[in-house]
Design goal:
globular; 4 domains; alpha/beta; 5-stranded mixed sheet
């Protein structure tokens, strides 16, 4: 079978597959081109886009291939919907040449040969400022780009059904060529590849390989866009000499798309996904509780940015807590936080999690909206570490450790042992260096005292490491875990023993004070633990009356207009579930729980927050591997008042984002990449990097 017939067969197969595309609705993306107002992406019944490889005409529902530009969209309107296309041209000042230019009369064989080969690639050349011709014979100017754009379009589309969408224009880059040379036909008459010589725009490749392979330009654009997003890098780095040489080594003679094209594709992708996410969370924020996360950081230009996360609970059948990055804005004295949330119902915001010691500006904004503020738990642990390393005795020991490692650095490196690298932004690197000194290397006897002191510090900080490891074992750690876990640490692990000397006691007291001030004394975290059926038995409450008062005020605020629809509670009491024979979860191992006796029944009292809370704390027993969402959905009717309050405290994670679950080295690497971001695409790149792989609910 000839090559032409094979290509025609592939085109027919693709056409048949496209025509079988099943869709329910059409999603119209926000694109700059006026032609996109009559096209959309196919979506299913759940309003999710089926594919972006095809677009559908909203007028006749014809399915077209999406090449990343508007050539075939405009051609379809011009050929199938002439009146609408003419209206678009008039409204937007687009000048269109005659569709069929006058040609000389031809006869016989000449007429047959003059007919255009349907498999020949249709080439469109646009005016670009970056292409300049210094010759006198052929030059392209950008005086009338719209006119040039339209005049270079193929004059007829009678056979557009057999266009091979995989064809492309191969551009050979030559260092000796200036401007654009004449178009050359390939030696093979059946080939549909047009070869155009262009001036080299980017850095030359000294060892360029001409493999003769045809590179799909649209796939190359998508690959470069994904590289920017997934690796959190600047667009400019794609055109560095090393990257340019690497791409041409793999692809042969190919020109990279303009940086403005890559930026445009990233903005379009960001706008499309942000619109979908924003519509969902804005509707949710009007009727359901949610929480916000605030993270402030700076880049290499010393500009401060604030990343804002949005946390909300999904509904049945998959109850879960989602953590999504909503936006990243430059943060300075001119930043208007109110405008970011102008379409949100901030009355439903249960809490704000911050990853730093928040400043007065943000604190004032959250206080005026009556939003509780919770310090991210990974930052709380970092504060504990910094407090320990700021102690004079510990600082002296650490300086001696660094001096010893520096003195024996050459000898240590010769043993193929990697010395941990310090990073001021990550206190855990200090801990890793002490652990390396006290456990990895054998030292002379004259430094035994220094080794023993270092080991004492490491053993105390191991308690915090164990805490973070416990939280990292959870899919999404809830804030309801913080109070019981911290109480366990303070009461069992950081309590003073008879064998503790003054140095060890000072270490434990320093950590205990920090945890007490930030976590245990926080009423919001205490109530969140109480309303989590897994932890209410493990949470000590020093002031129950204050907690009841807060819950009662919250309940009255929710039902100040209508409080008559409280369902009657059942007389039955929940029985203790049968203990599973499988191994214990990480939380069960952390708390070292034993089987408790089944609870007893208590008399029924009036239904209010205080009585419901008393019965709840007496009757309820839930395994630590149970889902609090499923528990309240199944058994919450027995405690009607608390069931309405529980969702407020279930939508709050214990950290701003999930980076703390990654190893310290990976955290440092990701922070460094974010630190190096510059330009105007920071928000788009970070948003797509964090949300690209997560399916929107």
């Amino acid at each position: 079978m000839s090559e032409s017939l094979q290509k025609y067969g592939r085109v027919t197969a693709v056409k048949a597959e496209v025509e079988d595309l099943k869709f329910v609705k059409l999603h119209s993306p926000k694109m700059k081109s006026v032609y996109w107002q009559h096209f959309g992406f196919p979506t299913n019944e759940d309003d999710r886009i089926i594919t972006k490889q095809n677009v559908v005409c909203t007028l006749c529902h014809k399915v077209l291939t999406n090449h990343g530009n508007t050539t075939n969209l405009r051609a379809h309107l011009q050929h199938r919907h002439k009146d609408i296309f003419q209206k678009i041209c008039i409204e937007n000042g687009i000048r269109v040449p005659p569709r069929r230019p006058v040609v000389k009369q031809q006869t016989g064989a000449n007429r047959m040969t003059a007919k255009r080969d349907p498999l020949k690639q249709k080439v469109k050349i646009e005016a670009r400022e970056s292409i300049q011709d210094t010759s006198n014979t052929a030059s392209f100017t950008a005086e009338e780009p719209s006119m040039l754009y339209e005049t270079m379009v193929p004059m007829t589309y009678d056979d557009d059904d057999v266009i091979d969408n995989d064809h492309f224009v191969k551009v050979e880059v030559s260092g000796n060529t200036s401007g654009m040379s004449k178009t050359k036909r390939s030696a093979n008459n059946n080939s549909s590849v047009e070869v155009i010589g262009l001036e080299r725009k980017y850095y030359p490749s000294q060892n360029r390989s001409d493999m003769g392979e045809m590179v799909n330009q649209y796939r190359l654009q998508d690959a470069l866009v994904n590289m920017v997003i997934n690796d959190v890098r600047n667009v400019d780095t794609l055109y560095d000499q090393g990257m340019s040489t690497f791409i041409r080594t793999l692809c042969g003679n190919v020109t990279l798309p303009a940086d403005k094209k890559i930026e445009s594709l990233i903005r379009e992708l960001h706008s499309d996904k942000l619109t979908t996410l924003a519509n969902q969370i804005k509707m949710r924020s009007q009727v359901k509780p949610y929480s916000l996360g605030f993270e402030i950081w700076k880049n290499v230009e010393n500009k401060h940015f604030m990343s804002i996360y949005y946390n909300y609970c999904t509904d049945a059948p998959n109850y879960n807590l989602l953590n999504k990055l909503y936006c990243t804005v430059e943060y300075n004295k001119f930043t208007s936080i109110d405008e970011i949330f102008e379409e949100f119902n901030l009355e439903n915001c249960a809490a704000a999690i911050v990853s730093y010691d928040y400043d007065d500006y943000l604190k004032h904004f959250l206080k005026t909206k009556d939003i509780p503020i919770i310090l991210s738990y990974d930052v709380t642990v970092d504060k504990c570490l910094k407090s320990v390393f700021d102690l004079p005795d510990v600082a002296s020991i650490f300086d001696q450790v660094k001096e010893m490692i520096m003195r024996y650095g050459t000898e240590i490196s010769s043993k193929d042992v990697e010395i941990p690298t310090l990073n001021e932004e990550f206190p855990w690197t200090f801990y890793e260096l002490l652990k390396f000194f006290s456990e990895t290397v054998s030292w002379p006897e004259d430094v035994d005292i220094l080794v023993a002191s270092s080991k004492a510090i490491v053993d105390t900080l191991n308690i915090l490491a164990m805490t973070l490891d416990t939280l990292k074992g959870e899919e999404i750690p809830h804030s309801s875990m913080l109070s019981p876990i911290t109480s366990k640490i303070v009461n069992k692990k950081l309590s003073l023993c008879a064998t503790d000397d003054e140095f060890a006691a000072n270490l434990k007291n320093t950590i205990s004070r920090e945890l007490q001030d930030v976590v245990i004394s926080d009423y919001h975290l205490t109530i969140a633990a109480m309303l989590d059926p897994r932890f209410h038995r493990l949470t000590p409450v020093k002031n129950p009356a204050k907690c009841v008062q807060i819950l009662t005020n919250q309940y009255n605020k929710m039902h100040q207009k209508n409080d008559t629809d409280v369902p009657a509670t059942k007389n039955e009491v929940e029985n203790k579930p049968v203990t599973s024979s499988s191994r214990k979860s990480n939380l069960e191992l952390f708390f070292d729980l034993q089987d408790d006796p089944a609870p007893t029944t208590i008399p029924q009292e009036d239904c209010n927050v205080e009585n419901d809370l008393k019965r709840y704390r007496t009757e309820v027993y839930a395994n630590l591997d149970e889902s609090p969402f499923l528990w309240w959905n199944k058994l919450g009717h027995m405690y009607a008042c608390l069931k309405r309050l529980a969702p407020i405290y279930q939508c709050i994670p214990c950290v701003v984002n999930m980076n703390f679950k990654k190893p310290v080295k990976q955290q440092i690497y990701e922070q460094h990449k974010r630190y190096m971001l510059t330009g105007s695409l920071i928000d788009a790149i970070l948003f797509l990097h964090n949300n690209n792989e997560n399916k929107l609910d």
